[in-house]
Give the backbone structure.
Amino acid sequence: MLRPEDRELVHQEVDGTNTAAASAAAHALIQREPEAAALAGDLRRVRALLGQVPERPAPPGLRAAILAALPGRPRASPTQSWSPVLNLIRWSVSQLTLAARRMEEVAMNRKVVVIGTTAVAAVIIVAGILIRRSPTGNEVGTIGGGDGITGVQQAARYRGHTMSERDVTIANPDIAVLFQNHAVVALVKSEAFRSAMQNEAFRTLQSSEAFRQLMDNEAYRQLMNNEAYRQLMANEAYRQLMDNEAYRQLAANEAYRQLLSNEAFRQLMSSEAYHELASNEAYRQLMSNEAYRQLMMSEAYRQLASNEAFHTLQSNEAFRTLQANEAFRAVMANEAFRAVMANEAARAVMANEAFRAVMANEAFRAVMANEAFRAVMANEAFRAVMANEAFRTVLANEAFRAVMANEAFRQLQASEAFRSLARSASLSEVFLNEAMRVQQ
Amino acid sequence: MDRYHRRVFNVALRILGNEQDAEDVTQAVFGKVFDSLETYNPRFRFFSWIYRMAVNESLNAAKRRKRMESLDDHPAIPDTGVAVDDAMEAEARVEAALMQLKPDDRAVVVLRHFASFSHEEIAEVLEVPARTVKSRLFTACERLRALLLPEGDGRC
């Protein structure tokens, strides 16, 4: 009878959340105890069943129904009495911001930019002062809670985002620190940075919530500092892959991420034989072979001798070569791999030319074996950014790639000051404005 | 909204097991998001904020529905006795099994397996300690194992 802590160890192993030491202990336990092995097998089958449940598309009318319901709803802000003033200020700020950007893009005339930026800053400061005069908290009540419970409830104290002078001037210590760094100044003065900043897609990306979350993510920063990842970013095939809808679906697939964290799969990915096979026409045919896929999905896969599909495959030369590969055999016995193979997106990706080109790429293999990359792949913000049209456009931009590969930019990204910028849209905007000023 | 409405719908669907209820919940969530945008605290990540609303709305809807129906109304788990190789059948079995979990345990399973959140992210969404997430996940997986894998089908 397994002890509760042993059961928990097996659960965490299957869930992929054990540390390296705990994982080794779990493996030893599974080898030693038939009950633990049975439990692990069962849990993997449960996961595989859960993995077979597809994400449903939203019903066709849902989006329209949500939108139709929104405009008629009164916004439950306790600052409603301030709304006309705030709306006017917000409108003015947005108009001036747009005008300043337009001026930057079209004229790039220093004088005009300085005047425009100053005007924006002045309006923001005034707005900040006004917005900070929020209600004191006790004077506002609402009938009916947001959760549909009836009765009189005190409204939550308003905590609107307040901008201050600190946010919008170079006097901000975070920004000042950055611009005292020669590498950062050199970076923002560089042609590549200037081009990247002028890129509409980059600015759209910068203003996206997912991108800011990603920039604030520890695993992503580790990844950015990873040499292999930087090489990969500069790789044309990788960009094609990123642009591939099937790959993005695959990246969002739980089974694929489990597979990525599987040691045997990583060994297979880094094996020379596998690369040869990946670029081998016969292997690609094999991967698109229905009998092969059925075989991989089959519970009876381990009992190959009696399997009809297996006999068909035995006559395939590429399959016989693969069978001689130790890592391949380990992967074939892996539940996560079979779950991935049962996934339509995975199969589409396997048949994708860009994916095969990337598979043959040394940097990609190094990244696949990288812990930070796997952590990033499991990150919601990263997946959102991957699915973001602006991000893909930016990836295809030569200047953006040059900036990403720039040592100073990576230092900048790793700095505490830059992280604080990344968390705030207003500070990001100020940083970019200051960068533009330095460039003049 | 485009980024989240499908995800919110799927979370609600897996917690409630009913497409119409999931649609209602999704609409309610976005209504609340719209109403509460000005009180959104940017210190918290947006996704955890919106998923928290989605889970809470779904659990509230489940409670309301439970008052109106008995547990016996839940569909029985189709037991074919053989490996499931049909996606629709798998979905029906998983859905029926999920409905037999406690709502809090179900929410953890949904966030882990269908939204692919880490334990820490689930803890953030549900505003509970990470060890509570682990404990609920453990309980839920043991229960799912018993519900989804028939005796004699490899079980000890």
